[in-house]
């Protein structure tokens, strides 16, 4: 069955390639590329660092904190053999750059793009092959171009800061609601950990919808989704439309029943540091062991991380 599915996907890719070489070139020429990658040694498998950048641009919500912050940090791994994985990095994870301690979501703003990648490689012990940064404001256009996505949350929510108004259950939502769903944390008893779960759910739902038969066979929808995605996406200078397709398929697989999802392991989610505040103190050794298994393809499908152990 796996080989049949891969065969069908391969046929789709070949057909699209034959009929849409111009489209490939158009996408490649319109990809906004920046220098993200480090010169670290290559490691097995392929890793993508996926960032949700919240510019506080007034797209939705009442939180007007200035500046650009990488409030969503995800590590997508596709081993040569085994399950794909999608792991969240808590935005308040404590890291050290030189002699300065800070939260990881501030690293890019303070020290730049490559330092953020360096910190993630230090946490995982694995090389980052590609980077994709999606602006939260652009996420609304992607969801609307897809015709909405289905999201589930088992609590009623009336949150003023994110402007999320939610009735418990599953609903097909538009882009604005999907963005509020991704941002909401003050009304979530699990705060940032709950928000990380919902952000993975949103991006997973986008990947599932984008790779569905109804989307792949609808050229008009694919073009609208492509235009929306390109307008909100920045990638590393080695990315191509092919590597973006690989990322989308890996994302879909990681979010499926045979995938691995969760968050990093930590020892203290409320570790206080003067000048930094309450931070998440990571379990460095356990995270290194986790990502070695993920890259080698030796980890079983399911949930991982300290949050999953508490459930």
In this structure, how is the largest beta sheet organized?
8 strands, mixed
Rg result? 19 Å
Helix amount, in percent? 40-55%
Using the alpha-carbon principal axes, give the shape.
Answer: globular
Strand content: 25-35%
- Secondary structure tally: strands: 16
Mean pLDDT: 84
Specify the oligomeric state. Answer: single chain
Strand/helix succession: HHEEEEEEHHEHEEEEHHHHEHEEEHEH
Distance between the termini: 33 Å
State the strand order across the main sheet. Answer: 1-12-7-2-3-4-13-16
Secondary-structure-derived class: alpha/beta
- Spans of at least 5 consecutive residues whose pLDDT stays below 50 are 1-19, 57-66
Please work out how many helical segments DSSP would assign: 12
